[in-house]
Amino acid sequence: MIDRFGRPLEDLRITLTHVCNFQCFFCHMEGEEGMENGLNKDEILLVAKVAKKFGINSVKLTGGEPTLRRDLAEIIQGLKQLGYKDVSMTTNGFLLKDLAPKLKLAGLDRINISLHAVSRETFKKITGVDAFDKVIEGIKEAIDEGLRPVKLNFVVNKRNLAEAFKFIELAQDLGVDEIHLIELHPVGLGKTAFNEHDDLTKIEEYISKIAIKKQIRKKHFRPRYILSSGLVVEVVKPYANPIFCAGCNRIRLSVDGKLKTCLYREDNIIDILDILKANYPKDVKEELLERAFMIAIAIREPNFKYKI
Ligand code: SAM
């Protein structure tokens, strides 16, 4: 399905919970408010089933911290049974050392692990938790389990700016496939943390100098730099960036049962909680959800647009 701005819908991002064991000072909470846990496994899978009918072929699980959902492996298994070829998750990695084998077995294809520091001190300053070493163990386990490509997310801000260059070295030493250097955006706690924002210009200049190749990814038209070591460095700059929005192929399912068409927007949201919780037969729910998806696609629009 293509929206009226010519953007195909291909990716479903599901917030599984708002519960988290870290307290990152900039957390955007996926642009959501409301309850900590809303939908059960069957409700989530029903939405994913309908999404697939609209041509969506990849699912990203997020949170809060998705590994805190006890039914995470069952949800992954259910998504694979629906035929999703690409099921991935973004996690803080705290529980990954123990969980990675179970998630791989359930069918998880690949993983993004947030690591916003290269030292214990900075890690604690950002997440509020002294868990740098534990997350590194989790990353190693994800690599061993073959949850590839293993990608690390690093949200650049004034507390970790001095470590951004060292982060590239650490990623290469660990043997991960890709890193995402992400611009902090003013959503959720990111609004009050925005005084610690950096625009990534210097970092991107440096990376473009040491890269052997540059590509543009179809998703969000993100620039990707390939280093001689093979490490891929993606620079993710969504804020006030019409090019990023023009390449957005994503729709979100929030914890409280809403189809959210944009991280930044409070409007253009379709509330499907009533459909999911109502005492209707499954086929009726499916039909109503199809209509909800059609409306979501019809109203979907880029947050940042070029103005003439
Ligand atoms: N707890 C998981 C984690 O830490 O990856 C999943 C949830 S987290 C909200 C998903 C991703 O959003 C992480 O990579 C995180 O660092 C990033 N993120 C959170 N707040 C952000 C902000 N204000 N600006 C940019 N990225 C942000």
Automatic annotation (TrEMBL):
Q: Where does the chain bind GTP?
A: 13, 60, 90, 151, 250-252
GO biological process entries? Mo-molybdopterin cofactor biosynthetic process
What CDD domains does the record tag this protein with?
A: Radical_SAM, Twitch_MoaA
Judging by the UniProt lineage, the source's domain of life is Archaea
Q: Which sites bind [4Fe-4S] cluster 2?
A: 245, 248, 262
**MF term (GO), any:** 4 iron, 4 sulfur cluster binding
Q: How is the cofactor bound?
A: Binds 2 [4Fe-4S] clusters. Binds 1 [4Fe-4S] cluster coordinated with 3 cysteines and an exchangeable S-adenosyl-L-methionine and 1 [4Fe-4S] cluster coordinated with 3 cysteines and the GTP-derived substrate.
Q: Kindly list any coiled-coil regions of this protein.
A: none
Domain Radical SAM core positions: 4-224
Q: What is its EC number?
A: 4.1.99.22
Pathway of action = Cofactor biosynthesis; molybdopterin biosynthesis
Cofactor(s) of this protein:
[4Fe-4S] cluster
* Binding positions ([4Fe-4S] cluster 1): 20, 24, 27
Keyword terms of this UniProt record = 4Fe-4S, GTP-binding, Iron, Iron-sulfur, Lyase, Metal-binding, Molybdenum cofactor biosynthesis, Nucleotide-binding, S-adenosyl-L-methionine
Q: Which reaction does it catalyse?
A: GTP + AH2 + S-adenosyl-L-methionine = (8S)-3',8-cyclo-7,8-dihydroguanosine 5'-triphosphate + 5'-deoxyadenosine + L-methionine + A + H(+)
Q: Which PROSITE patterns does the entry mention?
A: MOAA_NIFB_PQQE, RADICAL_SAM
Q: Where does S-adenosyl-L-methionine bind?
A: 64, 114
Functional description taken from the UniProt entry: Catalyzes the cyclization of GTP to (8S)-3',8-cyclo-7,8-dihydroguanosine 5'-triphosphate.
- List the PANTHER family hit by this protein, alphabetically: MOLYBDENUM COFACTOR BIOSYNTHESIS PROTEIN 1, MOLYBDOPTERIN COFACTOR SYNTHESIS PROTEIN A
The UniProt entry's sequence similarity note says: Belongs to the radical SAM superfamily. MoaA family.
Q: Which NCBIfam families match?
A: moaA_archaeal, PRK00164.2-1
Q: HAMAP family this protein is in?
A: MoaA_A
Question: Which protein, by its recorded name, is this?
Answer: Probable GTP 3',8-cyclase
Q: Which organism is it from?
A: Sulfolobus tengchongensis
Q: Which gene encodes it?
A: moaA
